[in-house]
Amino acid sequence: MTAPVDIDRVAGIIREVAAAEILPRFRNLTAGQIREKLPGQLVTEADIEAERVLTLRLAEILPEAACVGEEAVAATPALLSLLERPGAVWVIDPVDGTSNFAQGLTRFAVILALVVDGVTRIGWIYDPVSGRMTIAEQGGGAWEAGQRLSVLPGGPLATLSGSVKRSARLSGRVAKVGRKGSAAHDYLDLVHRGLHFAHFRRLMPWDHAAGVLIHAEAGGYGRMIDASPYRPRFDDGALLLAPDESCWSALRALLLG
């Protein structure tokens, strides 16, 4: 990192952008402010404007850093290659859970990560509805409102609850599985002791860079399903997060069949 980053200042920017660009549009979107950018993928005026303003404001914090935002990449896919280069990169998901947001459901959030030389150094997840801001810095723990966070303890598979999109292989083997349309809230549930595990496929960096760091700093164990470490980039593979290595290995065995 070429310059120190004021973590709280960045958190303040996220809050300000959410208050100005996201919350006023929540449950107030017109049909013309929602469109399908790809089959099954919505984008709203809130996504576009929040990312635009975040990109401008973050340039004030770290002028030398590049930005990789979900909506910018939708327009210019080559921007993803910035994560393969040395240097600092802001990774932005302006509204994670856009479908929920467009339907007036509260399970959405802002996700921001600072990646330096291919490693996530700091992650922020902000829930604008509740006002919860969860932050982790590499080596510094995961925190919210001055309280250090920790994952749930592991246990037998039959006692574990998780977020999984396709759960047939886990059905009847774990306590509960489901998915509610926001990776950000899955990560919040993992560190606020609402979920034991989560499994994701087709990984976009803005969905996971911050959350994987927050989960690890809260004491969780996460790896790609092939046991390699997660890297903040696009990956067509699968990611599994669990309370500890033992639970991770047992869940992996079930998922791989």
Sum up the structure in keywords:
Fructose-1,6-Bisphosphatase, Chain A, domain 1; 2 domains; globular; 7-stranded mixed sheet; 5-stranded mixed sheet; single chain; D-Maltodextrin-Binding Protein, domain 2; alpha+beta; 257 residues
Q: TL;DR?
A:
It is built from 7 helices and 14 strands.
Give the topology.
Layout: H1 7-22, E1 34-38, E2 41-44, H2 45-61, E3 66-69, H3 70-75, E4 88-96, H4 98-102, E5 109-116, E6 119-127, E7 132-137, E8 142-144, E9 147-148, E10 161-164, E11 176-178, H5 183-191, E12 197-203, H6 205-217, E13 221-224, E14 235-242, H7 245-256
Parallel strand pairs: 3-4, 10-11, 10-12
Antiparallel strand pairs: 1-2, 4-5, 5-6, 6-7, 7-8, 8-9, 12-14, 13-14
Helix pairs in contact: 1-2, 5-6
What report would you give on this structure?
The protein has 257 residues and is α+β, with helices and mostly antiparallel strands. The chain has two domains: 142 residues, Fructose-1,6-Bisphosphatase, subunit A, domain 1 (Fructose-1,6-Bisphosphatase, Chain A, domain 1, 2-Layer Sandwich), CATH 3.30.540; 100 residues, D-Maltodextrin-Binding Protein, domain 2, CATH 3.40.190. The protein is 30% helix and 30% strand. The protein is built from seven helices and 14 strands. The strands form three sheets. A seven-stranded mixed β-sheet has the order 3-4-5-6-7-8-9, sandwiched between helices. A five-stranded mixed β-sheet has the order 11-10-12-14-13, sandwiched between helices. A hairpin with a 4-residue loop joins strand 7 and strand 8. Helix 1 packs antiparallel against helix 2 and helix 5 packs parallel to helix 6. The longest helix is centred in the first third of the chain and has 17 residues. The chain is globular and about 45 Å long.
